[in-house]
Amino acid sequence: MKTILVILAIALSSCSTDDNARQEEPANCTCETILRADTFHLPSGYVWTVATLENDCTGAQRQRDLVGVHTLGEKICN
Fold this sequence. Notes:
single chain, alpha+beta, 4-stranded antiparallel β-sheet, 17% helix
């Protein structure tokens, strides 16, 4: 019985979590996420989106005109 307890104690103490493998990737500071998108179509076929963007690192928000159709949650990288 003592031998089994010793073996279990050794097995459990040798198991450890690898914190380095579980770290999240740092946010890309050149990318922004679309928080709001309003798309406009002209009769000539020109399409653009007025988007409210949030920087993935700083959380700063800004508004920008983007050519084409863009959707909520999309990532825009410079």
